[in-house]
Design a protein that fits this description.
- It contains 16 helices and 21 strands.
- It has helices at about 30-35, 35-40, 75-90, 110-115, 175-190, 225-230, 230-250, 265-270, 310-320, 340-345, 350-360, 390-395, 400-410, 450, 460-470, 470-475, and strands at about 10-15, 45-50, 55, 65-70, 95-100, 125-130, 145-150, 155-160, 195-200, 255, 280, 330, 365-370, 480, 490-495, 500-505, 510-515, 520-525, 530, 535-540, 545-550.
- Helix 8 (about 265-270) links the parallel strand 10 and strand 11 (about 280).
- Helix 11 (about 350-360) runs parallel beside helix 15.
- It is globular, with a radius of gyration of 24 Å.
- The structure holds alpha-D-glucopyranose and calcium ion (CA).
- Calcium ion (CA) binds near residues 20 and 24.
- Alpha-D-glucopyranose binds near residues 99, 162, 199, 257 and 336.
Length: about 550
């Protein structure tokens, strides 16, 4: 049986940065409504919105204080209802971000848990330890320890895997599980089409009485993923949750964020037998060249060169291992990493080729807003702009000037990837008539308005690419990697006697690739190329898609 999401082409919108409609400098739901014609023309058929619920915005909405209302900086419930209806009228599905691992410390549950030691909500969170001593040495993803002293002064501490203002929920407690199910069903009843389930792999924790073995000093906190990522209880607790949602709303797309999941875990989470997620987003797609690492440098200052041979191997493994299991998610960027143009592509020809390489594989494309324009990371000039406590320390200990360190960090960090959308050539690129909530130095990239009148633009290319992606051959055709050298990535998709070949040159040298003899027609290209009977020559970073009936 086929579902709408088997054919999804998803556009990720960071709501605060997409389109401001009221001049307060923050993107909002009405802004998104104004841009539905743009989305439609781009050829996508679903959007994923980062969190829009009531939030103190410590982590830009991932710290939710009320799951049942829209943050007033972003809009109102009536506007959300209108957005849903208008998207649906345009044939676009809506996927909401759903934060299940933690709430804001301003959520009434947490406030009550702290205000009242006998509150039933105390057991909604993870309180442990005594005498204000942290129960173990586990480290938070946002730096420092996962423990924060109970503000009520009980001497206990509460657990936070992310910011200290984002206490983790205690999923061991069945009331928590049912409460989150209620939230999901509330939104599904409103007509949304899917949930992007945030950080779900972290809901189960190991016995808290253990320290993670480390050579670091006794007072150091260290990342301890084996104690809080992908533990068996994640599946035990989420399976009924997902089953109940599917029982009531069978067409819901459950897209799990499984950052550190390898391909075998992806199988566990998405096989039909598991009855959990439909697809997962892994962060293990982009292997970096280890030899480029300098052990003396902090992570944010390391060079981040893609290891292309490893990348090719890795993509092939994901394509093969998930075949017959679930649809891989195909993406180059999101709000948690530097933009693809800044991180990997570096020029338009390469960005177009990488897009065809990724999105014509088997799976569901997820495009990060502005990627279709070739947008780059902003460049920040002060450590506070990153809103990340680890940046200031990195800058301080860098063996280079602050200016240089900030330049490097700006090309690696997630925050500068969240800049305002470049709509047109008016003030603030048409994003706002006020002061944008986030700004920095911008690379010169043509706006959507300019690109829409240029046949060679990135925007036009993405439109053509999505039109191709809708061909059945690129949706459900068989995938086969062709044996070419490390500098080229070539695969075929075949279906009903037809074969498409996707050829990409990963190097900056001209490359020749042998192809099965046959009659081909060119569907899409980037950079220079020449096609002869059994061979294709691709210019630097070039890419080509051919369709034919081979012998
Ligand atoms: C996910 C989000 C990230 C957020 C974190 C905590 O990883 O993608 O942006 O900070 O969860 O909710
Ligand atoms: Ca606004």
């Amino acid at each position: 049986m086929s579902s709408w999401y088997d054919h999804a082409i998803i556009y990720q919108i960071y709501p605060k940065s997409f389109q401001d409609s009221n001049g307060d400098g923050i993107g909002d739901l009405n802004g998104i409504r104004q841009r539905i014609p743009y989305l439609k023309q781009l050829g996508i058929n679903a959007i994923w919105l980062n969190p829009v619920f009531v939030s103190p915005q410590v982590d830009n909405g991932y710290d939710v204080a009320n799951y049942y209302a829209i943050d007033d900086k972003i809009g109102t419930m009536a506007e959300m209802d209108d957005l849903i209806a208008e998207l649906h009228a345009a044939g676009i599905h809506l996927i909401l971000d759903f934060v299940i691992n933690h709430t804001s410390d301003q959520h009434p549950w947490f406030k009550d848990a702290v205000a009242n030691p006998h509150s039933i909500y105390r057991d909604y969170y993870i309180f442990a330890g005594h005498h204000n001593q942290r129960p173990n040495n586990w480290g938070s993803f946002f730096g420092g320890t996962v423990w924060e002293p109970d503000p009520a002064g009980t001497g206990q501490s509460y657990f936070h895997l992310f910011d200290k203002h984002m206490p983790d929920l205690n999923w061991k407690n069945p009331e928590v599980r049912l409460s989150m199910e209620d939230v999901a069903k509330y939104w599904l009843a409103k007509g949304i089409d899917g949930l992007r389930i945030d950080a779900f792999i972290h809901i189960a924790k190991a016995n808290l009485a253990q320290n993670f073995p480390t050579n670091a000093g006794a007072n150091e906190a260290v990342l301890a993923e084996p104690f809080y990522a992908n533990l068996p209880n994640v599946q035990k607790w989420l399976r009924p949750f997902c089953q109940h949602i599917k029982a009531d709303y069978p067409e819901t797309f459950l897209l799990g964020e499984a950052a550190s999941a390898n391909v075998n875990l992806a199988v566990d989470y998405t096989s039909q037998h598991a009855q959990m997620m439909d697809s997962v987003i892994t962060f293990r797609y982009f292997p970096l060249r280890q030899s480029a690492n300098d052990v003396n440098k902090p992570a944010l200052l390391q060079s981040e060169d893609m290891d292309w041979p490893e990348f090719k191997k890795n993509q092939t493994i994901w394509q093969q291992t998930l075949s017959g299991v679930s649809q891989p998610v195909l993406y180059w960027g999101n709000h948690d990493m530097a933009r693809v143009m800044t991180r990997v592509a570096h020029n338009a020809i390469s960005a177009k080729s990488l897009a065809m390489l990724m999105y014509l594989q088997r799976g569901i494309p997820v495009i990060y807003y502005g990627e279709e324009l070739g947008m780059e990371n902003l460049q920040f000039t002060s450590p506070d702009q990153f809103q990340d406590q680890t940046v200031a320390a990195t800058v301080q200990h860098a063996d280079m000037s602050e200016t240089d360190a900030l330049k490097v960090i700006s090309t690696h960090h997630k925050m500068p990837a969240r800049g305002p959308m470049l709509w047109n050539d008016e003030a603030n690129h048409g994003f706002t008539t006020g002061q944008p909530w986030l700004s920095g130095q911008e690379a010169p990239v043509a706006s959507a308005a300019t690109q829409s009148t240029d046949e060679d633009s990135m925007l036009k290319f993405y439109q053509q690419l999505f039109a191709l992606k809708k061909f059945p051959i690129f949706q459900s055709g068989d995938y086969c990697l062709l044996p070419t050298d490390d500098d080229t990535f070539v695969y075929t998709r075949s279906d009903a006697g037809q074969t498409a070949i996707v050829l990409v040159n990963l190097s900056s040298q001209t490359k020749r690739v042998a192809i099965p003899s046959g009659k081909y027609r060119e569907l899409l290209s980037s950079g220079q190329h020449e096609v002869s009977a059994e061979r294709v020559e691709l210019g630097a970073n070039g890419g080509l898609v051919l369709l034919g009936n081979h012998d």
